[in-house]
Write a structure and sequence with these properties.
This protein is mostly helical and 145 residues long. The chain has one domain (6-115). Helix content is 37%, strand content 0%. The chain is globular and about 45 Å long.
Amino acid sequence: MVKLSAELVAPCGINCGLCIRYIATLLGKNQELKMPKCMGCNPSKKKCAFIRGHCELLRLNKIKFCYECNSFPCKRLETLNRRYTSRYQTSLVNNLNEIRENGIDAWLKNQEKLWCCPSCGGIISVHTRKCHKCGYEQLKQKKHC
């Protein structure tokens, strides 16, 4: 079964462990998939590739997650959330609300159930709905393992 890490959850609510670029890096398939390597926003010290440049609180390490901000959700996060919701059927605002309400560990356990490949136990990418380890393709509706 997939084991996701709190370190791979970006401040904006993106689970970098489900990102196609991160998975390709993990499996050594970056050249094959023609994409740059990525170790995740937090491990690579980028904090959040989409929001950090627009958020002083993130730049100054005053918050760990966007939900800790009085402006949550800000316009930048709302724009990113609309994109993720329409393209990938994943709400970053919902992710952050679940983390705030239930804690990161409970949220990660749920993510593992939602995104583990029923065929090989690998990680299904949120972007492609595909397990790049064995080729299994998930339907748009998420299924539990």
